[in-house]
Amino acid sequence: MDSNTIKLTQFSPAAGCGCKLSPETLREILAPVEIDALEDSTSPLLVGNSSRDDAAAIDIGGGRALLSTTDFFTPIVDDPFEFGQISATNAISDIYAMGGHPTVAIAILGWPVDKLAPAIASHVLAGARQTCREAGIALAGGHSIDISEPIFGLAVSGLVDIENLKQNNTAQSGDTLFLTKPLGVGIISTAIKRGKAQASDIELASQSMRSLNRIGPSLASINGVNALTDVTGFGLLGHLTEIMMASELDAEISWSQIPKLPNLEHYVEEGCVPGGTGRNYASIAQHLPTLNETQLAILCDPQTSGGLLVTVQPEAIDEVAAILEGAGLPFNPIGRLSKQLNEKATLRLSD
């Protein structure tokens, strides 16, 4: 089977981060077994799983922390090399989202050897290796298994100055929200699986997913950047709701200011909506306003290798916007956080 003609997305029912368990299911799994090591004053663990953050952080002394994360998923594009690039970009993003610099990665590969030639897996690894080189790190090894459908990802380590360590539970009332990549890659990937995606739309989505969130450490070092996370499988509203709940805040976002890939409304009308979208919505519906079909499909769309969601104090808005604009990233604010008014965090959507 030739890697130039293979369609990897046909080998799995879900694509990219759309194959993640829903937030509600994940909470149900983790609740009985969670141990909060942060309660132990002697533990070097600075960030664990209590706030569903992007990476674990361990104090290693000298004002620095070791970051550790892993991420893997099923194919979101048909091209093996691009699948490797996107998987690596997505995994490395968790380090950037904590304000850190990646240092080393190891690969996680599951491959159906009776369905797909090993040579195709080599192309996946080659794509990942190229992305790791772009990030300035080595792909230093890994682990592989024979499995019924292809999966690939990385476990990544990084370092961060503790004073620049960013989490998703440190946002403040009055913070402005920025999003550094357009939404919609889950919708486009579903259109790819159904043979309905235009080549130009596929390329824009792929370019976005292959773009490293290397701006994360620069943003984290700015006084007034309070919280940082990357938008992945739970969609924009899922990850924003995590910030709201962890920081006990409400939010208002502007539909017109949210960056989106082109032609998404057309694909939604064609029914190209990932199954994960509905699960994402159901997990946070109690916090949301009434959404029309298009708004729900885009705002709850499972993102793969999505952008950074940044919360910024008023005095730092201009500096953050200038850095984003200089990097060629979306730089218009998309919303604002405010004091939580009711028992549960609530999101409002404006035009």
Structure description:
There is one protein chain. By secondary structure, this protein is of the alpha+beta class. It folds into two domains: 8-164, PurM-like, N-terminal domain (60s Ribosomal Protein L30, Chain: A); 176-350, Phosphoribosyl-aminoimidazole Synthetase, Chain A, domain 2 (Alpha-Beta Complex). It contains eleven helices and twelve strands. The strands form two sheets. Strands 1-2-3-6-4-5 form a six-stranded mixed sheet, covered by helices on one side. It has a six-stranded mixed sheet with strand order 8-10-7-11-9-12, sandwiched between helices. A hairpin with a 2-residue loop joins strand 2 and strand 3 (64-73). The chain is globular. The relative contact order is 0.18. The mean pLDDT is 91.
Key descriptive features of the protein:
351 residues; alpha+beta; 60s Ribosomal Protein L30, Chain: A; Phosphoribosyl-aminoimidazole Synthetase, Chain A, domain 2; 2 domains; 6-stranded mixed β-sheet; 11 helices; 12 strands; 23% strand; globular
